[in-house]
Amino acid sequence: MALWTISAQAGTGAPEVARELARRAEVELLDREALLPLAHELEPEITDADELEERISSRFTALALGAAIATGSPEAVREFKLRKTLPDLGRAVLREAARHPAVIFAPAAFAALGPDPSAIHVRLRAPFEWRVAAYQRKEVVDRHAAEKAVRHDDEHKRAWVRTLYHVDVDDTSHFSLVVDVSAFATDRVVDILLAAAGKAVS
Fold first, then answer.
1. Rounded to whole angstroms, how far apart are CA atoms 165 and 106?
2. In this predicted model, what pLDDT tens digit does every residue of 90-147 receive, in sequence order?
3. In a domain, 105, yes or no
């Protein structure tokens, strides 16, 4: 069974890689939006993936939560319980998603699934300067805005994965395959990912 998880640094063109891989492998693409209904079914409080990631990944929110719990806030207690259940929820969602061939494009999917003989855990990366330039071109912003956005995204995803699964997303030992996308065109990156699963490259 062909199953890829894709975790990526900002500015690596990962959405395009994931879409093209799913198209060429003829499997379903499961990104955060596609996984959200399943997560919501298991935990009704989860309704917005972006808002949830920002909330959980923020150090300041965590500090505020601790202060609110100390004052006995019921909302803070609910938030604390949600944070405690999220890792198991993530594992349950990914186990369900991984029952069929798919490309799973989510930053913590590799950690939620863990070692799995049927899964190829992929990390897409590139030098910081290359990623900033790519972000500038795609979003049509100046260099300062691109640097700020790329740094924020890197820190945000790093915090999300660390908070949920206590692993470092930059530790390449967690991945079956690490690809520097600055060295290859998108089609070639997809060729590499297909070949890693034993798929014929046309």
1. 14
2. 888 888 888 899 999 999 999 999 988 889 999 999 999 999 999 999 999 999 999 9
3. yes
**C-alpha torsion angle, residues 4, 200, 14, 167 (rounded to 10):** 30
Q: What is the CATH number of the domain that holds 16?
A: 3.40.50.300
Pairwise CA distance, residues 16 & 186, whole Å = 8
Q: How many domains does the chain have?
A: 1
The pLDDT of residue 15 is 96
Question: By residue range, what is the domain housing residue 170?
Answer: 3-196
Look up the pTM and report it. 0.82
CA distance 27 to 19: 10
pLDDT at 64: 45
Q: Say what the pLDDT of residue 148 is.
A: 97
